Amino acid sequence: MSEDRIDGPGQSDEPVLAHRQGRVLVLTLNRPERLNAVSLPMYEGLERELLAASGDGAVRCIVITGAGRAFCVGADLKAHEGGPPSGEDRSRYVRTAQRVNYLIQSGPKAVVAAVNGHAIGGGLEMALSTDFMIVASEAKLRFPEISLGTFIGGGTTYSLVERVGVMKARELIYLGDFFLGAEAASMGMATKAVPTEQVLPAALELADRLAEKAPISLAHAKRLIGPAGTMTREEALDREAEALEEIFGTRDWQEGVEAFHEKRPPRYTGE
Q1: Same domain, 200 and 228
Q2: Distance between CA atoms of 71 and 30, rounded to whole angstroms?
Q3: Handedness of CA 264, 265, 269, 271 (dihedral sign)
Q4: How far lies 90's CA from each of 40, 84, 122, in Å?
Q5: For the segment 161-182, what is each residue's pLDDT rounded down to a tens digit?
Q6: 3-state secondary structure labels for all residues of 179-246
Q7: Domain co-membership, 250 together with 172
Q8: CA-CA distance, 59 to 162, in Å (whole number)?
């Protein structure tokens, strides 16, 4: 796969690195010396990149991974040794984090988490926000917030229940025990667990497949599948019909039909 870098010179110290591999945007959490613990600058960098990607027709899929040996170990507790942020700083940190997770969950592009190592607290919450999670089998995962006297975020009270059910979500959040990536896959939290060295290649392979799909159709699917269980059957039928009626008027619909009849791969443009 050809690589087209879009991060400029001197950005190796940036908390989020962005580069393009074909139609896939790879976002790398880049605080390896702190095991990619989240910070306000990291969340702000992710917010900028996700907003830009949502309107960029050249980006068809997004992969989020971590530099070094961890994906993301959540809050930087060393940074809070002097006490938590207060007032406006506290609100800015919390709300920016929530916006980032919302953008991952609700944006028009499919997002794949390449969980190459430990994912704890806010890091695991971010991975849960993605559409697909490829995780290292031996990676340690945990929701430690209640044990630390703080609280979960990132929509985990919704996204975790959606994946593993109410009882398992209670166990994972209330008790805060460690579990491995292989267990996350077995309980339906992760899409697949693989050896560490295969995590990013497997995520990129999946992202390439997603990038080939019709982007307008995929965006509608992501919008409608997300609220599963919150819509009535009638609402689901109605929203699917609205989506299909819109798609019928696109060039991509015509391209899909022509490609089928001509027995060739479709070349979707998102129009």
Answers
A1: no
A2: 10
A3: positive
A4: 10, 8, 15
A5: 989 999 999 999 999 999 999 9
A6: EEHHHHHHCCCCCEEECHHHHHHHHHHHHHHHHCCCHHHHHHHHHHHCCCCCCCHHHHHHHHHHHHHH
A7: no
A8: 27
- Candidates 229, 101, 232; CA nearest to 166 is 229
Asked if 157 and 249 sit in the same domain, the reply is no
The answer to whether 19 and 3 have CB atoms below 8 angstroms apart is yes
pTM given for the model: 0.89
Count of structural domains, the chain: 2
CA neighbor of 91 nearest in space, from 136, 131, 128, 40 = 40
**156-164 vs 166-175: helix axis angle to the nearest 10?**
130
What tokens does 2 get?
């050809």
* Residues belonging to the active site: 125, 145
Cα→Cα distances 192→4, 12, 137, 185, 270, Å:
27, 30, 9, 5, 29
Asked whether residue 42 is assigned to any structural domain, the reply reads yes
Domain of residue 255 covers 215-262
Domain of residue 249, CATH code? 1.10.12
Q: Which of 27-41, 92-106, 218-232 has the lowest mean pLDDT?
A: 218-232
Q: With contact defined as beta carbons under 8 Å apart, do 157 and 178 qualify? A: no
